């Protein structure tokens, strides 16, 4: 598991300690030129030292979400969860991260995942029309495309099966089977889903296809809603794979969500879910998600 000291790394620690820290002797130690020392040391030592620095870097990751958590606490209902996939470290903002909220379009990732999974098992066949709809519902967040796929492949049972397969126990299918966007999700379950897919719950080609679509987020969704907020405002060179969500007014609240995989080698999985009073404008939720993302980015350094 990432972040654990292996026997090789432990040996390296001992080796570096023996090379670094002097021992007291009664006789002077003759000076040794650096080039002579290099010739006398086993070449594998360089590799072991490289391993050590990699382990040290992983053992002390630059992750701290205190500032984002403090800000979120002032903004109403916010769920925040982060996984550092290099180290295996999981962080969240407490109860908010485990509070189910209306999913809005974030559930489209789960729908796409389940369809690709079923096809990989030979249970269904996806053709050009289905792939076109998957791409539209993830890139442009197109609702008609999602509704067609949802109805075509089982409706509420599609979501229920995917939640069970990924053991997303804090989430649930929509109470009214007609409306896929009324499914409930938690920030914890969203990052768990993305992490599961990245770790191999889908075949590599399907995984790359799915997250490749999320990297192509359209600036404006098919319904005219601007998608560049929250985690989508990060430096575009980070190639973030983003899925946003917005809706009103399930349970009497307005939801604005931003979820993403960012960083080199898809290091960080992040979910920011928000809910606020419908009396507040959309800009309130957009500002909340964007500021939380900025505070997280300051400490996570997505390009590391």
Describe the overall structure.
There is one protein chain. The chain is an alpha+beta fold and 304 residues long. Helices cover 45% and strands 14% of the residues. It has eleven helices and seven strands. It has helices spanning 7-20, 34-40, 44-59, 66-73, 107-120, 128-139, 143-152, 156-165, 187-201, 204-214, 282-300, and strands spanning 77-84, 89-92, 101-102, 184-185, 241-248, 254-262, 268-276. It has a five-stranded antiparallel sheet, sandwiched between helices. Strand 1 and strand 2 (89-92) form a beta hairpin. Helix 5 (107-120) crosses helix 8. The radius of gyration is 24 Å and the shape is globular.
The description of the largest β-sheet is: 5 strands, antiparallel
Helix content: 40-55%
Oligomeric state of shown chains: single chain
Strand content: 5-15%
Strand order of the largest sheet: 2-1-7-6-5
Distance between the termini: 19 Å
CATH class of the largest domain: Alpha Beta
Defining key terms:
11 helices, 5-stranded antiparallel sheet, disordered N terminus, 2 domains, two-stranded antiparallel sheet, Beta-lactamase, single chain, globular
Short summary:
The chain is α+β, with helices and mostly antiparallel strands.
Helix-strand blueprint:
Layout: H1 7-20, H2 34-40, H3 44-59, H4 66-73, E1 77-84, E2 89-92, E3 101-102, H5 107-120, H6 128-139, H7 143-152, H8 156-165, E4 184-185, H9 187-201, H10 204-214, E5 241-248, E6 254-262, E7 268-276, H11 282-300
Antiparallel strand pairs: 1-2, 1-7, 3-4, 5-6, 6-7
Helix pairs in contact: 1-3, 4-11, 5-8, 6-7
């Amino acid at each position: 598991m990432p972040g654990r000291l292996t026997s090789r790394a432990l040996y390296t620690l001992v080796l570096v300690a023996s090379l670094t820290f002097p021992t007291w002797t009664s006789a002077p130690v003759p000076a040794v030129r650096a080039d002579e020392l290099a010739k006398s040391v086993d070449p594998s030592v360089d590799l072991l030292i490289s391993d050590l620095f990699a382990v040290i870097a992983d053992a002390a990751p630059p992750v701290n979400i205190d500032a984002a958590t403090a800000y979120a606490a002032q903004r109403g209902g916010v769920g925040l969860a982060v996984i550092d996939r290099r180290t295996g470290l999981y962080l969240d903002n407490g109860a908010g991260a485990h509070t189910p909220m209306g999913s809005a379009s974030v559930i489209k990732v789960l729908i796409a995942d389940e369809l690709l999974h079923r096809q990989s098992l030979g249970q269904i066949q996806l053709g050009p029309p289905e792939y076109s709809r998957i791409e539209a519902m993830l890139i442009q967040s197109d609702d008609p495309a999602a509704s067609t796929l949802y109805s075509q492949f089982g409706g509420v049972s599609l979501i229920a099966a995917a939640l069970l397969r990924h053991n997303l126990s804090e989430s649930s299918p929509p109470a009214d089977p007609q409306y896929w966007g009324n499914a409930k999700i938690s920030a914890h379950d969203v990052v768990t889903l993305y992490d599961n897919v990245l770790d191999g719950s889908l075949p590599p080609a399907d995984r790359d296809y799915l997250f490749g679509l999320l990297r192509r987020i359209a600036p404006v969704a098919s319904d005219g809603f601007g998608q560049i907020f929250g985690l989508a405002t990060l430096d575009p060179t980070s190639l973030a794979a983003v899925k946003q969500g917005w809706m009103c007014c399930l349970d009497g609240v307005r939801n604005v969500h931003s979820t993403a995989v960012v960083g080199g080698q898809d290091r960080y999985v992040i979910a920011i879910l928000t809910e606020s009073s419908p009396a507040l404008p959309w800009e309130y939720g957009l500002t909340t998600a964007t500021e939380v993302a900025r505070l997280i980015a300051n400490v996570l350094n997505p390009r590391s």
